[in-house]
Amino acid sequence: MNTLAYILLGILAREPLSGYDLARLLKKHFGPFWAISHTQIYPALAQLVEAGFTTYEIIEQQARRPDKKIYQITEAGQGALRAWVEAPTSPTVIRDEFLLKAYSLWVADPEHMQGIFREQIALHQERLFMHEQELEAKRTKYLAMSQGNSESLVMAELIFKYTISYEQNYVSWCNGVLHYLEQREEAHRVEEI
Amino acid sequence: MNTLAYILLGILAREPLSGYDLARLLKKHFGPFWAISHTQIYPALAQLVEAGFTTYEIIEQQARRPDKKIYQITEAGQGALRAWVEAPTSPTVIRDEFLLKAYSLWVADPEHMQGIFREQIALHQERLFMHEQELEAKRTKYLAMSQGNSESLVMAELIFKYTISYEQNYVSWCNGVLHYLEQREEAHRVEEI
DNA sequence: TAGCACATGTAACTTGTTACATGATTAG
DNA sequence: CTAATCATGTAACAAGTTACATGTGCTA
């Protein structure tokens, strides 16, 4: 069982879903911080079934669509998920290609790089906006249901809070570099006169 | 040429180094945000030589140590590096396993999870401290050399600034979750009475 | 005398991405 | 008529990790 398998288990612990639905949910909620393609999901689900952590039932579809397989977590699966959550996590590596480019920024054209940084800022601001909207959506959903499993919703909220602060930090860093680049250009111009 | 090759080029553009030295420098400076093992570095360097982006000279070692290969960036290599830096970067995925565990936090034992979060906080605080120290070291190095390629040092500084703010953000988020867990425990205790 | 620093590499394995494959329905 | 949505999968490839391999000199 690898991380992907536990991600799927974590979602199935909230509600039973098909592989397709899992892919969609993952793209929407986890897209920017853990991209998973459907080609990974299907073998992983088969693995989970083989390990006895999930079962599935085939739903015959109307309108002659391909049959659905709805996956459900088993008790063994819940135990495995819990063990994974409680186990120590090895330190994360960020692996951000853009930061590495920034490290070699000095070899590139400064004016061009201002454009590149503006692009990145726009991208992360868009993500920020998206996450803020999703947080709002979760909040209203949370208020609507006064009973039930509210804790799982609180955790989803906390994840969005993290991604929001992450994107805010990213944008403000990019802005800092951009200001540096602009200032330097200014200084160069003064030198020339 | 993949990202790894350009990372190596980016370092070699600053100073010629051996594979072993590259591995050491990468571990020290890039460790927490782009881990690279030496087993990846050697084939990548061979690839760079084949592409004509680097050359190397063999340095015979005293004390009967294995011979060193010192790699140097070529003009073609500098061009390739620049093209990579100036090219648009596809959006980063964070891929943080701990966040995914947090998403499934509600299935685990709350008291145990407080311990897990305290561990993470300690880890990231340690990293934060490390980065702050390295930033200081870069600053003194930067002030010491009044001439030369100061811009590459400025960029290295900016990277450390990013990692520092990243870790600060991470720690403060973990603290938020921890407070939530503590509060919830408190509430449960009151309920019981 | 055990382990670490130096120095370079290969091979097997795991994980993730891209391309391919099928096939109906519905909206623009 | 083209693209998107629904729905599941396989296969080839790229990237990254772990284990193995060699050999000396220094330190605890």
What can you see in these coordinates?
The structure is a homodimer of 193-residue chains. By secondary structure, the first copy, chain A, is mainly alpha-helical. Chain A folds into 2 domains: 3-86, Orthogonal Bundle (Arc Repressor Mutant, subunit A), CATH 1.10.10; 97-192. In chain A, 69% of the residues lie in helices and 7% in strands. Chain A contains 7 helices and 3 strands, in the order H-E-H-H-E-E-H-H-H-H. Chain A has helices spanning 3-12, 19-30, 38-51, 75-86, 97-103, 110-144, 150-192, and strands at residues 17-18, 54-59, 68-73. In chain A, helix 2 (19-30) crosses helix 3 (38-51). The first copy, chain A, is elongated. The mean pLDDT of chain A is 91. At the A-B interface, helix 1, helix 4, helix 5, helix 6 and helix 7 of A face helix 1, helix 4, helix 5, helix 6 and helix 7 of B. Chain A binds a DNA duplex (28 and 28 nucleotides) through helix 3.
Fill in the keyword field for this structure.
homodimer, 193 residues, mainly alpha, Arc Repressor Mutant, subunit A, 2 domains, 3-stranded antiparallel sheet, 3 strands, DNA-binding
Record the SSE blueprint.
The structure is a homodimer of 193-residue chains.
Chain A: H1 3-12, E1 17-18, H2 19-30, H3 38-51, E2 54-59, E3 68-73, H4 75-86, H5 97-103, H6 110-144, H7 150-192
Antiparallel strand pairs in A: 1-3, 2-3
Helix pairs in contact in A: 1-3, 2-3, 6-7
The structure holds a DNA duplex (28 and 28 nucleotides).
